[in-house]
Amino acid sequence: MSSTxxxxxxxxxxxxxxxxxxxxxxxxxxxxxxxxxxxxxxxxSETEALANLDKSMRIWxxxxxxxxxxxxxxxxxxxxxxxxLVRLPTYTHKRLVNDAKSQGISLxxxxxxxxxxxxxxxxxxxxxxxxxxxxxxxxKAYELLSHTWTKVSxxxxxxxxxxxxxxxxKKKWLPLTGCTIGGxxxx
Length: 187
What we know:
This protein has helices spanning 9-13, 46-67, 90-103, 107-146, 167-173; strands at residues 19-23, 29-33, 40-43, 148-151, 159-162. It is an alpha+beta fold. It has 2 domains: 9-75, 2-Layer Sandwich (Double Stranded RNA Binding Domain), CATH 3.30.160.250; 90-173. It has a 3-stranded antiparallel beta sheet, with helices on one face. The protein has a two-stranded antiparallel sheet with strand order 4-5. Helix 3 (90-103) crosses helix 4 (107-146). It is flat and about 55 Å long. It starts with 8 loop residues before the first helix and ends in a 14-residue tail after the last helix.
């Protein structure tokens, strides 16, 4: 997964490496190049942290090139063979072989199907979580609209005043969630 030929510094600096930036609790910013271990920088702003990261990356790459060590390519430039080796306990291997036999398919086909199903399941779970969050936001918006407000006037006791709004007023309060006023979900 690493490059086998040594390229120039400008070649590596021009590649689309993944840069990650994180705001720290100290209100400073931490930045790193994900594919280059130890290549990181900080700054008081995102812009400064990224500028410092470019300087750090240049120094990091010069040092590695000087040592003659292979430099990892950006994730998006890597070529994948579609094969990888997995080490697992013997009892898991045996169970997978037996499950594949019972399905009438090879172990390889069975494992690919399991991984694909899990990947699809993760996507569905994410969508369900998103919809649940939007329903919760919608519920809170409706509760806000139908809430009984308390008003204190000069020298008088508190009065409960129920806020009534027409549909156009409700639309102002509802978050733009993709949900309709009638409660249906629009896809």
